[in-house]
Design a protein that fits this description.
By secondary structure, this protein is α/β, with parallel strands linked by helices. It has two domains: 179 residues, P-loop containing nucleotide triphosphate hydrolases (Rossmann fold, 3-Layer(aba) Sandwich), CATH 3.40.50; 84 residues, no CATH class. Helices cover 45% and strands 12% of the residues. Helix 8 crosses helix 9.
Amino acid sequence: MPLILLTGFPASGKSTRAQQLKEYFSTIGGKNVVLLSENDIVKNKHIYSDANKEKELRSTLKSELQRLISQDDILILDGGNYIKGYRYELYCSSKSNKTTQCTLHIDTSSEQAWKQNLKREETCQYSQENFDALIMRYETPDGRNRWDAPLFTIQPEDELPFESITAALCERKAPAPNQSTQSLPLTSTNFLYELDCVTQEIVNRVVEAQKTSVVGDEVSIPNSTEKFLLKRRYQLSELSRIRRQFISFAKTHPVDDIPRLAAMFFQYLTSHLV
C-alpha cells in the first residue's frame, strides 16, 4: 500500500485529516484504504508519561505497518510520529516494500492544539505535562530529508491537496530498495564482525575529532565519502546508544556489500541525533 504518514502536535487535528483522506480515496479515488491509527491502540493518554510504554506503542505501530504495507492499496498512518529517526525507520519499511509514501505535517500551533485538547472528553485529553513534553520533543519534518519527502504542510484552515497527494502516491516511481532497506540473507560470515568494527570506528572518529574541532566543522567518515557536521558536542554514551540501535536494526537487514555499512550507519546516526 502506498503510505500516507501523518505527523503533528498532539490534538492538532491529525485524526480528522486522516478520516478526510480515507473518505476521499475510498469514494472518489476508488481505492481500498486502511487507516492505522494510534488512537485505536492508546486507550489512555497517560501512556506518554512512561517512556517504555511509549516505545512499545511505536514498536506496535511499526509492526502493524510492516504487516499491512504492500504495493496496491493505500495505508494511512495516523499518529504523532514526532521522532525523525522513527520516521526514517518507517520510510525504510515502505522502501523495502517498493512502494511510495508521502508525509502530511498538520501544522497547528501549540496554542490552538491545546485549546482543541481541552474540548475532548476528559479520558482522551493530554495532561499539561505530557502535552508540553511532546511539544518539546517534536522534530518538525523537513522536505529536504528523503524520508519526509514529498512533504505537504497543512494549516488548520487549508483544504487537503488531494490531487497532489494522489500524484505523489500513484504517479511517482517508488524508490528502489537498497542494501540499507532490503532484507537479504546473511551471506557473509564476517558481517557481524565488520558491522561491529565499522560502526565503532565511526563513533571513535567523531569522539576524537571533537577534541580538536569546533562546532560547525566537518569530520570525515572512515570508509565513506560522507562528512559528519558537528552541530554540537556529542557524548560517547549518546553515540554508543545509537550505534547499538543500528546494530540491532542491521541484524534484521543484513547486507552482502560491506563497504555500504559505513554509509548506512552515517545515515542512521545523523537521522537519530537530536
